[in-house]
Amino acid sequence: MKDRILQIRKDFPILQQHVNGNPLVYFDNAATTQKPLEVIDAISNYYTTQNANVHRGNHSLSQLATTYYENVREKVRVFVNAKSSTEIVFTRGTTEAINLLSKILAKGTIKKGDEILVTEMEHHSNIVPWQMVCEEIGAILKVLPINTKGELELNKLDELITNKTRVFSFAHVSNAMGTINPIKELVATTKSHGIISIIDGAQAASHIPVDVQDIGCDFYCFSGHKIYGPTGIGVIYGKEELLNQLPPYHGGGEMIDKVTFEKTTYNVLPFKFEAGTPNIADTIAFGAALDYVNELGIEKIAAYEHELLTYATGKLMQLEGMQIIGTTNNKTSVLSFVIAGIHPTDIGILLDKMGIAVRTGQHCAQPLMDKFKIPGTVRASFAFYNTFEEIDIFIDALQKSMRMLK
Amino acid sequence: MTIEEIKDQVIEEFAIFEDWMDRYDHLIEQGKELAPMDIKYKTDANLIKGCQSQVWLYASLDDKGNLMFQADSDAIITKGLIALLVRVFSGHKPSEIELASINFLDQIGLKEQLSPTRSNGLYSMIKQMKLYAIAFQAKK
Questions:
Q1: Which of A280, B39, B60, B118 is the most buried (most CB within 10 A)?
Q2: Structurally, how many domains does chain A consist of?
Q3: Do B75 and A361 touch (CB under 8 A)?
Q4: CB contacts, 8 Å: A350 with chain B
């Protein structure tokens, strides 16, 4: 990766920009990643040469668009190693994916008095949909806590799981800390208790190879925009047997088999869950993003990002008053931190003045911030197009900011 | 001094700084110099929504009918921003505050901070101050 970094950076036009008079240092990759030209061009090409509605027309353009669109489903299948592309459902993103799952599971699978388990490190999008379900049907939300290193307290799992537990929904990787959870172990526990497992893979898919058959989970969700693809496209992998049993989510075109005013029967998988005209252009561009990532290789990406993480962690630790939030050994390239006596927002404002984009705040994980009793963190998150030089610039800017704010 | 005169004074003060760092240093100074807020007003009810940091704002009328603001924040740049606003608006008639323009922020190089989507909440602070001004006029 290192020897190709200059070439790789050229593939991402936005990285050549200046922000506030300084070359952009983009360290907010956990929020969204930048897009290579291949992805940008795919959107433009689609509207220039392929645009037609999918799955409907017999005309050539519609057939072409459908082929490109369905090719991406197959690419996603390969990417997560699902058994069949019918197990790949497209959504707008991970948030919609979890909302979809929570709503359809609330129609008969989760009943009054049942329990739903999440973890203390979840993003709001894996908390709030379940709270809504709990309110609606009288189910109970339970929470697996974390320790001070930001790791799940696995020894508490046994006491939290009861014969009422129906669903365990958890992050593969924590968005605020980068902690990689032992998902195979967690899934094995759910299996032994007959609990449905849902994995929020939003922060994992761009860093860790995902093999859903090996993991053994029932559902795995992730977003296109966090893996160098466009916004507005996401994925649910779901076991075919379960998807077949579950009721549809939205009603409309595409998702039906036969409609009469008396009774409607639904389409086969995955179309049963994809009502209406889908986000065709972004789906096709998402395919281009997967091609790009596959060409580089997720393992190589992960190895390089780990080098960046180690280098930046070492530099950060030398700064006075530094506290890193999330100190497990097993983490993705996310560095969340607080500095004694300085509000994260202040650091974010000053870093921005120096052209550095980081995220500051609660990272849509307020319960986690409450746990650490902090108002938020500064989060720098790295991607394969970031460099060691950028980390030096960041550390230098951070020291300048600290001097101004002390 | 009128609101306009104070604004001119602030613009003049900031004009001597060519470098953004000096401007922000001065802004941070404003925050440090802000009169402490009476602890009894640092309540959740007085928190301004829309800020990533906590910002408390309280207003009352003095015996001359001038609106007096008290504010605080746990983030120092944010505190500098609210201190600047308190300096400009506090001690004036509610009607003057309601009508006062905030164009001086452009001229001191802080316009970039003034967006509804910015996490510092400057936009929300100004809105809240103007709302106080309107509310106190309605009370009369």
A1: A280
A2: 2
A3: no
A4: 24, 77
Interface touch A343/B24, C-beta < 8 Å = no
**Could you tell me the CATH number of the domain that includes residue A366?**
3.90.1150.10
Domain ranges of chain B: 3-139
In a domain, A32, yes or no: no
DSSP H/E element including B26:
helix B20-33
On chain B, the residues whose CB falls within 8 A of the CB of A20 are 20
Provide the CATH number for the domain around residue A63: 3.40.640.10
Taking contacts as CB-CB distances below 8 angstroms, the residues of chain B near A348 are: 119
Per CATH, is B3-139 categorized as 3.40.50.10150?
no
Say which of B20, B76, B119 has its CB closest to residue A360.
B119
Residue from A349, A351, A364, A405 whose CB has the most chain B CBs within 10 Å, to mutate: A349
**Residue A386's domain spans which residues?**
2-27+297-405
Residue A75 has pLDDT above 70, yes or no: yes
Beta pairing, strands A334-339 & A322-325: antiparallel
Contact B37, B58 (CB under 8 A): yes
Q: Does A400 touch chain B (CB under 8 A)?
A: yes
- Number of A–B residue contacts, CB under 8 Å: 45
Digit-coded pLDDT (tens) for A91-115: 999 999 999 999 999 999 999 999 9
Minimal Cβ distance to B25: which of A361, A375, A404: A404
Gap between the Cα atoms of A312 and A308, Å rounded: 6
